[in-house]
Design a protein that fits this description.
single chain; 520 residues; alpha+beta; Uridine Diphospho-n-acetylenolpyruvylglucosamine Reductase, domain 2; Uridine Diphospho-n-acetylenolpyruvylglucosamine Reductase, domain 3; binds flavin-adenine dinucleotide
Length: 520
């Protein structure tokens, strides 16, 4: 296999692409794969779609794509790849392919299209032993948006979300699944009762907090390294009908952060707490990344940041129509404790589905302008609370002072409410901030909108964090050497390697993460 720079006809913004070179035993491998007794199908050509992802920066074509319809298909394929023991023949589960740096790709290997495993029938919602401990059993190839619609038929919904719901269960559980509910419920990986997993040895194992515990915690946040999740049992709560959605602005980062931390420390608080940064001359109505329509749009559209940086606190309170008076009282009390710029309070009421599916509205708009498929050099960081002011000063006050290339989210979470036994790596402190630079690069652009420029800025941010020893961890991490991975995992590295040895000793799974290149 040859790795070379972006000139192989994919797109001018690509960094890593390859032209697939057939391995020596290509014909034998293909014919043995074709003989596998599968219920699903195997595709050996026209697989370009899985050689790309949302990041649109790395493009690695596979040898074959497996479209499984049963767990046995996945188990059989993995066992067969183990027996072949062909160096370079690896296996990647692909959810919705919304990775950013080729994590769901398998160069010259087998990509398992998990969406073909998704069930066409309704998900089953169960109330446990007559007590109200509801959950839903779903295929890991299912999109969260479909799970929302299914569970709402029962008046229920998952507790913890991502900002965007057109991602698969297996894809987000392999990372964490963090959004504005995580300060209270933890990320999505903390809201799963049970998993069915096909390990790197092809074994099908059911695991939970009490059964095959080691595998359960390995796989959650495990970057696809230990097994392929085929089913998940997800914790549910009663779903509200409506959401009061509020945004307000701050000119001082210190006030903004103080209010965010205050809100996440309260028991009776908002149900969703996030925030974002507005950099330089941004008409906020045009730049809000979602379908937020304030009641007073004229006033909101007149707001121009005019060369200054502002911070927007975004909160939401769930309610049912018959509780609106009570809800408004709670919201008023909470708002009275905050120090935002008074005339910048923008409010809206939307249905629960409209709120949760808000980013999809932007997706449709961007798609219609051809701006959804552009390269996305995103950078996601977890920053300890004690260093967030230093970080903000340098990054928003210097590195990104003049411009940003997309939304920048920033909000704190309280780790004392998180289960830390999973593979997810977070900073040491109880409270840390998620800061997400959601940049888009303009195809063929030069200067500040180009992929190179944004990657250079990302590098500057990372270098600053390292040099200033801020104790930052990457979320949706991307590294190219094992040394960097070791540093990322820190004290968790030994355990991570041991788990890999136990569940995927030939290092077949998720090669696109570039953690383990060879068998252990
Ligand atoms: P893929 O990209 O297909 O796969 C991701 C990784 O998981 C790969 O390594 C793959 O091999 C592995 N994998 C996939 N399925 C399985 C499986 N069943 N078993 C084992 N391993 C598997 N993340 C957040 O936490 N919060 C957000 O708010 C958020 N918002 C986002 C918004 C957008 C527009 C996008 C594009 C991404 C966002 N993400 C967010 C990141 C997202 O959670 C991850 O990129 C996630 O991996 C995407 O899911 P996917 O189904 O597309 O996974």
């Amino acid at each position: 296999f040859i790795l070379h720079k972006a000139d192989s006809g994919y797109n001018n913004n690509s960094i890593g692409t390859s032209i697939f070179q057939r391995p020596y035993h290509y014909d034998q491998i293909v014919s043995s794969l074709q003989k596998l007794p599968l219920e699903g199908s195997l595709s050996l050509s026209n697989n370009d779609a899985v050689a790309s992802d949302f990041g649109n920066i790395y493009h690695f074509p596979p040898l074959a794509v497996l479209n499984p319809v049963s767990v046995s298909d996945i188990s059989r394929a993995i066992k067969h790849v183990m027996e072949l023991s062909e160096p370079g023949l690896k296996v990647a589960a692909r959810g919705h392919g919304h990775s950013l740096q080729g994590q769901s790709q398998a160069e010259g290997g087998i990509v398992i299209n998990m969406e073909s495993l998704a069930e066409k029938t309704a998900a089953v919602v169960v109330v446990n032993n007559g007590e109200f401990v509801p959950y839903v059993d779903v295929s890991a190839g299912e999109l969260w948006i479909n799970i929302l619609h299914e569970t709402l038929k029962h008046g229920l919904a998952p507790k913890s979300w991502t900002d965007y719901l057109h991602l698969t269960v297996g894809g987000t559980l392999s990372n964490a699944g963090i959004s504005g509910q995580a300060f209270r419920h933890g990320p999505q990986i903390n809201n799963v009762f049970q998993l069915e997993v096909v390990t790197g040895k092809g074994e099908v194992v059911t695991c939970s907090e009490t059964r095959n515990t080691e595998l359960y915690y390995s796989v959650l946040g495990g970057l696809g390294q230990f097994g392929i999740i085929t089913r998940a049992r997800i914790s549910l709560e009663a779903a509200p009908k409506m959401v009061k959605w509020i945004r307000m602005l701050y000119s001082e980062f210190s006030m903004f952060a103080r209010d965010q931390e205050h809100l996440i420390s309260l028991e009776n608080t908002f149900d969703y707490i996030e925030g974002f940064v507005i950099i330089n001359r941004t008409g906020i109505l045009n730049n809000w990344r979602s379908s937020f329509n304030p009641r007073d749009p004229i006033q909101a559209s007149q707001f121009i940041s005019d060369g200054r940086t502002f911070y927007c606190l975004e909160v939401a309170k769930y309610f049912n129509p018959d509780e609106s008076q009570f809800m408004n009282q709670i919201v008023e009390n909470l708002l009275s404790e905050l120090s935002y710029i008074p005339w910048t309070l923008f409010q809206s009421e939307v249905s629960y589905v409209q709120f949760l599916d808000r980013v999809h509205v932007s997706e449709k708009q961007l798609r219609s302008k051809g701006l959804w498929e552009v390269p996305h050099p995103w950078l996601n960081l977890l920053i300890p609370r004690t260093h967030i002011h230093h970080f903000a000063q340098e990054v928003f006050g210097n590195i990104l002072k003049d411009t940003s290339n997309g939304p920048i989210l920033i909000y704190p979470v309280n780790q004392t409410r998180w289960n830390r036994k999973t593979s997810l790596v977070t900073p040491e402190e109880d409270i840390f901030y998620l800061v997400a630079f959601l940049s888009s690069a303009m195809p063929l652009a030069r200067g500040s909108e180009s992929l190179e420029h944004i990657l250079t800025q990302n590098k500057r941010i990372l270098e600053f964090c390292t040099n200033a020893k801020l104790g930052v961890k990457q979320y949706l991490p991307h590294y190219t050497t094992q040394e960097e991975w070791k540093a990322h995992f820190g004290s968790k590295w030994e355990a991570f390697v041991q788990r890999k040895t136990a569940y995927d000793p030939l290092a077949l799974l998720a090669p696109g993460q570039r953690i383990f290149q060879k068998a252990l």
